[in-house]
Amino acid sequence: MYRSDEQKKRPTQSDVAARAGVSQTTVSYVINDSDIAIPQSTRQRILEAMEELGYVPNLSARSLRTNKTYTVATIIPDISNPFYPAFQRGIQDVTRNKDYDLILYNTDELESEEKRCLRSLKERQVDGAIVTLFHLDHQALIPLLDSNVALVALVPAALDVGNLPLDTIYIDNSAAAFKAVCYLVEKGHSRIGMVAGSANTPTGMRRIRGYQQALDSHHLALDETIIREGEFTERGGYASMKELLTISPKVTAVFAANDLMAIGAMVAIREAGLSIPEDIAIVGFDDIFAAAMISPPLTTVNQFKLNLGRRAAEMLFERIDGSVTGNGRSEEMPFELIVRKSA
User: Fold this and answer.
1) Do the beta carbons of residue 262 and residue 284 sit within 8 Å?
2) Strands, E, within the chain: which ranges?
3) In the chain, which residues have pLDDT < 50?
4) How many CB atoms lie within 10 A of CB 314?
5) What residues pair up with 73 in beta bridges, in sequence order?
6) How far is CA 181 from each of CA 18, 68, 113, 237, 337, rounded to the nearest angstrom?
7) Which one of 174, 229, 255, 313 is least enclosed by Cβ atoms within 10 Å?
8) Nearest CA to 116 among 75, 164, 69?
9) What percent of the chain has pLDDT over 90?
Protein backbone atom coordinates (compact mmCIF):
# COMPACT_ATOMS: atom_id res chain seq x y z
CA MET A 1 0.00 0.00 0.00
CA TYR A 2 1.34 3.46 -0.91
CA ARG A 3 2.27 5.54 2.12
CA SER A 4 1.70 9.26 2.50
CA ASP A 5 4.58 11.74 2.69
CA GLU A 6 4.00 12.05 6.42
CA GLN A 7 4.20 8.29 6.87
CA LYS A 8 7.37 8.16 4.76
CA LYS A 9 9.21 10.79 6.79
CA ARG A 10 12.86 9.82 7.13
CA PRO A 11 13.99 8.98 10.67
CA THR A 12 16.42 11.43 12.22
CA GLN A 13 19.28 11.23 14.71
CA SER A 14 16.79 12.49 17.28
CA ASP A 15 14.52 9.51 16.55
CA VAL A 16 17.46 7.13 16.95
CA ALA A 17 18.46 8.80 20.24
CA ALA A 18 14.92 8.47 21.61
CA ARG A 19 14.70 4.81 20.58
CA ALA A 20 18.11 3.99 22.12
CA GLY A 21 17.58 6.10 25.25
CA VAL A 22 20.68 8.22 24.74
CA SER A 23 21.48 11.80 23.78
CA GLN A 24 21.59 12.90 20.14
CA THR A 25 25.25 13.84 20.68
CA THR A 26 26.05 10.24 21.62
CA VAL A 27 24.31 9.03 18.46
CA SER A 28 26.41 11.48 16.43
CA TYR A 29 29.61 10.17 18.02
CA VAL A 30 28.73 6.61 16.98
CA ILE A 31 27.62 7.51 13.45
CA ASN A 32 30.78 9.52 12.81
CA ASP A 33 33.04 6.93 14.44
CA SER A 34 34.36 9.54 16.84
CA ASP A 35 37.37 8.96 19.07
CA ILE A 36 35.11 9.62 22.07
CA ALA A 37 34.87 6.46 24.18
CA ILE A 38 31.36 5.00 24.01
CA PRO A 39 30.48 1.85 26.02
CA GLN A 40 30.01 -1.12 23.71
CA SER A 41 26.54 -1.81 25.11
CA THR A 42 25.48 1.77 24.31
CA ARG A 43 26.99 1.58 20.83
CA GLN A 44 25.11 -1.65 20.18
CA ARG A 45 21.77 -0.13 21.31
CA ILE A 46 22.29 2.78 18.92
CA LEU A 47 23.15 0.50 15.98
CA GLU A 48 20.07 -1.63 16.71
CA ALA A 49 17.88 1.48 16.89
CA MET A 50 19.27 2.67 13.54
CA GLU A 51 18.43 -0.67 11.94
CA GLU A 52 14.94 -0.83 13.46
CA LEU A 53 14.11 2.68 12.28
CA GLY A 54 15.80 2.31 8.90
CA TYR A 55 17.99 5.30 9.65
CA VAL A 56 20.60 6.15 7.00
CA PRO A 57 23.24 8.80 7.82
CA ASN A 58 23.15 11.93 5.69
CA LEU A 59 26.45 11.78 3.83
CA SER A 60 26.06 15.30 2.47
CA ALA A 61 25.81 16.67 6.01
CA ARG A 62 28.86 14.64 7.05
CA SER A 63 30.79 16.02 4.07
CA LEU A 64 29.93 19.59 5.05
CA ARG A 65 31.11 18.99 8.62
CA THR A 66 34.38 17.29 7.68
CA ASN A 67 35.15 18.95 4.32
CA LYS A 68 35.51 15.47 2.78
CA THR A 69 33.43 13.68 0.15
CA TYR A 70 34.26 10.18 1.45
CA THR A 71 34.79 9.16 -2.15
CA VAL A 72 37.93 7.96 -3.91
CA ALA A 73 38.43 6.90 -7.52
CA THR A 74 40.59 4.73 -9.72
CA ILE A 75 41.57 5.29 -13.35
CA ILE A 76 42.55 2.15 -15.25
CA PRO A 77 43.38 1.62 -18.94
CA ASP A 78 41.30 -1.48 -19.72
CA ILE A 79 38.64 -3.08 -17.51
CA SER A 80 38.55 -6.11 -19.85
CA ASN A 81 42.17 -6.98 -19.03
CA PRO A 82 41.93 -9.37 -16.03
CA PHE A 83 44.93 -7.73 -14.40
CA TYR A 84 42.95 -4.60 -13.57
CA PRO A 85 39.87 -6.16 -11.90
CA ALA A 86 42.23 -8.02 -9.58
CA PHE A 87 44.16 -4.81 -8.88
CA GLN A 88 40.84 -3.03 -8.37
CA ARG A 89 39.70 -5.72 -5.93
CA GLY A 90 42.74 -5.06 -3.76
CA ILE A 91 41.86 -1.35 -3.71
CA GLN A 92 38.24 -2.11 -2.86
CA ASP A 93 39.26 -4.29 0.11
CA VAL A 94 40.83 -1.22 1.71
CA THR A 95 38.25 1.41 0.72
CA ARG A 96 35.42 -0.75 2.06
CA ASN A 97 37.11 -0.98 5.45
CA LYS A 98 37.53 2.80 5.42
CA ASP A 99 33.79 3.27 4.67
CA TYR A 100 34.56 5.15 1.45
CA ASP A 101 32.75 4.98 -1.86
CA LEU A 102 34.84 3.97 -4.87
CA ILE A 103 34.39 5.30 -8.42
CA LEU A 104 35.95 3.47 -11.36
CA TYR A 105 37.05 5.16 -14.60
CA ASN A 106 38.10 3.13 -17.65
CA THR A 107 40.10 4.97 -20.33
CA ASP A 108 40.32 2.29 -23.05
CA GLU A 109 44.00 3.31 -23.30
CA LEU A 110 43.00 6.61 -24.98
CA GLU A 111 44.74 9.89 -24.19
CA SER A 112 41.50 11.82 -24.67
CA GLU A 113 39.80 9.64 -22.08
CA GLU A 114 42.67 10.09 -19.62
CA LYS A 115 42.21 13.86 -19.90
CA ARG A 116 38.43 13.58 -19.49
CA CYS A 117 38.76 11.36 -16.41
CA LEU A 118 41.18 13.77 -14.73
CA ARG A 119 38.75 16.63 -15.36
CA SER A 120 35.93 14.59 -13.87
CA LEU A 121 37.97 13.83 -10.74
CA LYS A 122 38.45 17.54 -10.14
CA GLU A 123 34.78 18.32 -10.77
CA ARG A 124 33.61 15.57 -8.42
CA GLN A 125 36.01 16.77 -5.70
CA VAL A 126 37.03 13.26 -4.70
CA ASP A 127 39.27 12.94 -1.67
CA GLY A 128 41.81 10.84 -3.52
CA ALA A 129 42.52 8.70 -6.58
CA ILE A 130 44.72 5.85 -7.75
CA VAL A 131 45.63 6.38 -11.40
CA THR A 132 47.22 4.33 -14.17
CA LEU A 133 48.01 6.52 -17.17
CA PHE A 134 49.41 5.30 -20.49
CA HIS A 135 49.78 8.65 -22.25
CA LEU A 136 49.82 11.56 -19.80
CA ASP A 137 52.76 12.06 -17.47
CA HIS A 138 52.73 13.10 -13.81
CA GLN A 139 52.67 16.79 -14.75
CA ALA A 140 49.03 16.29 -15.79
CA LEU A 141 48.22 15.48 -12.16
CA ILE A 142 49.39 18.82 -10.74
CA PRO A 143 45.95 20.51 -10.97
CA LEU A 144 44.48 17.74 -8.81
CA LEU A 145 47.33 17.97 -6.31
CA ASP A 146 46.80 21.74 -6.17
CA SER A 147 43.16 21.00 -5.26
CA ASN A 148 44.33 18.83 -2.31
CA VAL A 149 43.32 15.57 -3.97
CA ALA A 150 45.50 12.74 -2.62
CA LEU A 151 47.04 10.75 -5.46
CA VAL A 152 48.86 7.46 -5.97
CA ALA A 153 50.05 6.51 -9.47
CA LEU A 154 50.74 2.98 -10.64
CA VAL A 155 53.85 3.42 -12.81
CA PRO A 156 56.13 1.01 -14.72
CA ALA A 157 59.36 1.99 -12.95
CA ALA A 158 60.74 4.30 -10.25
CA LEU A 159 59.70 7.88 -10.95
CA ASP A 160 61.22 11.11 -9.66
CA VAL A 161 58.36 13.58 -9.05
CA GLY A 162 60.50 16.20 -7.34
CA ASN A 163 58.75 17.94 -4.46
CA LEU A 164 55.23 17.00 -5.53
CA PRO A 165 53.13 15.17 -2.91
CA LEU A 166 52.49 12.41 -5.45
CA ASP A 167 53.05 8.83 -4.30
CA THR A 168 53.97 6.17 -6.87
CA ILE A 169 53.92 2.39 -6.68
CA TYR A 170 55.47 0.02 -9.19
CA ILE A 171 57.11 -3.23 -10.04
CA ASP A 172 60.26 -2.91 -12.10
CA ASN A 173 58.82 -3.88 -15.50
CA SER A 174 62.21 -3.90 -17.21
CA ALA A 175 63.70 -6.17 -14.55
CA ALA A 176 60.71 -8.52 -14.72
CA ALA A 177 60.90 -8.75 -18.53
CA PHE A 178 64.67 -9.26 -18.26
CA LYS A 179 64.15 -12.21 -15.91
CA ALA A 180 61.52 -13.80 -18.15
CA VAL A 181 63.69 -13.61 -21.27
CA CYS A 182 66.82 -14.77 -19.42
CA TYR A 183 64.84 -17.83 -18.37
CA LEU A 184 64.16 -18.64 -22.03
CA VAL A 185 67.85 -18.20 -22.89
CA GLU A 186 68.82 -20.50 -20.02
CA LYS A 187 66.41 -23.11 -21.42
CA GLY A 188 68.52 -23.13 -24.59
CA HIS A 189 66.69 -20.65 -26.81
CA SER A 190 68.65 -18.10 -28.85
CA ARG A 191 66.01 -17.06 -31.42
CA ILE A 192 63.48 -15.39 -29.11
CA GLY A 193 60.73 -13.20 -30.52
CA MET A 194 58.61 -10.69 -28.65
CA VAL A 195 54.89 -10.13 -28.93
CA ALA A 196 55.08 -6.59 -27.61
CA GLY A 197 52.51 -4.09 -26.56
CA SER A 198 52.73 -0.57 -27.91
CA ALA A 199 56.17 0.98 -27.45
CA ASN A 200 54.35 4.32 -27.12
CA THR A 201 53.14 3.34 -23.65
CA PRO A 202 55.40 3.39 -20.58
CA THR A 203 54.63 -0.25 -19.78
CA GLY A 204 55.25 -1.45 -23.33
CA MET A 205 58.49 0.51 -23.57
CA ARG A 206 59.83 -0.89 -20.28
CA ARG A 207 59.04 -4.50 -21.17
CA ILE A 208 60.67 -4.15 -24.59
CA ARG A 209 63.73 -2.66 -22.88
CA GLY A 210 63.97 -5.62 -20.49
CA TYR A 211 63.75 -8.03 -23.44
CA GLN A 212 66.56 -6.19 -25.22
CA GLN A 213 68.73 -6.09 -22.10
CA ALA A 214 68.34 -9.84 -21.57
CA LEU A 215 69.51 -10.60 -25.12
CA ASP A 216 72.44 -8.22 -24.74
CA SER A 217 73.50 -9.74 -21.42
CA HIS A 218 73.77 -13.15 -23.13
CA HIS A 219 75.55 -11.70 -26.20
CA LEU A 220 72.63 -12.50 -28.48
CA ALA A 221 72.10 -10.23 -31.48
CA LEU A 222 68.99 -8.06 -31.41
CA ASP A 223 66.78 -8.66 -34.45
CA GLU A 224 64.10 -5.99 -34.47
CA THR A 225 62.14 -7.86 -37.13
CA ILE A 226 61.08 -10.38 -34.48
CA ILE A 227 59.67 -7.71 -32.16
CA ARG A 228 56.04 -7.25 -33.13
CA GLU A 229 53.99 -4.48 -31.50
CA GLY A 230 50.24 -4.67 -31.09
CA GLU A 231 47.29 -4.14 -28.77
CA PHE A 232 47.55 -5.53 -25.23
CA THR A 233 44.78 -8.00 -26.11
CA GLU A 234 44.30 -11.57 -27.33
CA ARG A 235 43.63 -10.14 -30.79
CA GLY A 236 46.86 -8.14 -30.66
CA GLY A 237 48.86 -11.19 -29.59
CA TYR A 238 47.28 -13.35 -32.28
CA ALA A 239 48.04 -10.84 -35.05
CA SER A 240 51.62 -10.29 -33.87
CA MET A 241 52.30 -14.03 -33.63
CA LYS A 242 50.92 -14.60 -37.14
CA GLU A 243 53.50 -12.09 -38.39
CA LEU A 244 56.32 -13.73 -36.42
CA LEU A 245 55.51 -17.11 -37.94
CA THR A 246 56.25 -15.74 -41.43
CA ILE A 247 59.81 -14.68 -40.56
CA SER A 248 62.77 -16.95 -41.27
CA PRO A 249 64.67 -18.30 -39.47
CA LYS A 250 61.75 -19.08 -37.22
CA VAL A 251 61.69 -18.21 -33.54
CA THR A 252 61.85 -21.06 -31.03
CA ALA A 253 60.49 -19.00 -28.13
CA VAL A 254 58.35 -15.93 -27.58
CA PHE A 255 58.05 -13.43 -24.75
CA ALA A 256 54.64 -11.75 -24.67
CA ALA A 257 54.13 -8.35 -23.05
CA ASN A 258 51.07 -9.60 -21.18
CA ASP A 259 49.11 -12.80 -20.69
CA LEU A 260 46.26 -11.80 -22.99
CA MET A 261 48.76 -11.38 -25.83
CA ALA A 262 50.39 -14.69 -24.88
CA ILE A 263 47.03 -16.48 -25.08
CA GLY A 264 46.35 -14.96 -28.51
CA ALA A 265 49.83 -16.00 -29.64
CA MET A 266 49.20 -19.57 -28.46
CA VAL A 267 46.11 -19.75 -30.68
CA ALA A 268 48.15 -18.64 -33.71
CA ILE A 269 50.89 -21.17 -32.93
CA ARG A 270 48.37 -24.02 -32.77
CA GLU A 271 46.65 -22.89 -35.97
CA ALA A 272 50.04 -23.19 -37.69
CA GLY A 273 50.17 -26.84 -36.64
CA LEU A 274 52.94 -26.25 -34.10
CA SER A 275 53.19 -27.48 -30.51
CA ILE A 276 53.86 -25.57 -27.29
CA PRO A 277 56.54 -25.76 -25.92
CA GLU A 278 58.08 -28.39 -28.23
CA ASP A 279 58.15 -26.14 -31.32
CA ILE A 280 57.76 -22.73 -29.71
CA ALA A 281 57.98 -21.97 -25.99
CA ILE A 282 56.07 -18.96 -24.67
CA VAL A 283 56.23 -16.76 -21.57
CA GLY A 284 53.66 -14.12 -20.61
CA PHE A 285 53.34 -11.32 -18.09
CA ASP A 286 50.73 -10.65 -15.34
CA ASP A 287 49.70 -14.15 -14.16
CA ILE A 288 46.00 -13.59 -14.75
CA PHE A 289 43.62 -16.32 -13.56
CA ALA A 290 43.40 -17.94 -17.00
CA ALA A 291 47.19 -18.40 -17.17
CA ALA A 292 47.05 -21.48 -14.96
CA MET A 293 43.89 -22.84 -16.62
CA ILE A 294 44.87 -22.90 -20.31
CA SER A 295 46.66 -25.83 -21.95
CA PRO A 296 49.55 -25.91 -21.56
CA PRO A 297 49.56 -23.70 -18.45
CA LEU A 298 51.39 -20.44 -19.11
CA THR A 299 54.79 -19.53 -17.68
CA THR A 300 54.44 -15.89 -16.68
CA VAL A 301 55.44 -13.02 -14.39
CA ASN A 302 53.27 -12.64 -11.29
CA GLN A 303 52.81 -9.03 -10.13
CA PHE A 304 50.76 -9.98 -7.04
CA LYS A 305 47.88 -7.87 -8.27
CA LEU A 306 45.75 -7.95 -5.11
CA ASN A 307 48.64 -6.89 -2.90
CA LEU A 308 49.58 -4.18 -5.39
CA GLY A 309 46.05 -2.76 -5.20
CA ARG A 310 45.87 -3.01 -1.42
CA ARG A 311 49.18 -1.26 -0.92
CA ALA A 312 48.26 1.49 -3.37
CA ALA A 313 45.05 2.10 -1.41
CA GLU A 314 46.88 2.06 1.91
CA MET A 315 49.29 4.69 0.61
CA LEU A 316 46.34 6.76 -0.59
CA PHE A 317 44.59 6.74 2.79
CA GLU A 318 47.84 7.58 4.56
CA ARG A 319 47.70 10.81 2.56
CA ILE A 320 43.98 11.37 3.09
CA ASP A 321 44.14 10.96 6.87
CA GLY A 322 47.27 13.10 7.12
CA SER A 323 49.55 10.45 8.59
CA VAL A 324 51.90 11.03 5.64
CA THR A 325 52.71 14.52 4.33
CA GLY A 326 55.43 16.15 2.26
CA ASN A 327 57.15 14.96 -0.88
CA GLY A 328 55.93 11.91 -2.74
CA ARG A 329 57.04 8.39 -1.92
CA SER A 330 58.08 5.77 -4.48
CA GLU A 331 57.46 2.18 -3.40
CA GLU A 332 58.68 -0.85 -5.32
CA MET A 333 56.64 -4.05 -5.07
CA PRO A 334 57.86 -7.61 -5.73
CA PHE A 335 57.35 -9.83 -8.78
CA GLU A 336 57.98 -13.52 -9.39
CA LEU A 337 58.47 -15.67 -12.48
CA ILE A 338 55.95 -18.54 -12.31
CA VAL A 339 57.24 -21.51 -14.31
CA ARG A 340 54.60 -23.71 -15.95
CA LYS A 341 54.51 -26.05 -18.94
CA SER A 342 54.41 -23.47 -21.77
CA ALA A 343 58.16 -22.91 -21.36
Assistant:
1) yes
2) 71-76, 101-106, 128-131, 150-154, 167-170, 192-196, 227-229, 253-256, 281-283, 300-302, 330-332, 336-338
3) 1-7, 64
4) 16
5) 103, 129
6) 69, 47, 33, 17, 10
7) 229
8) 75
9) 74
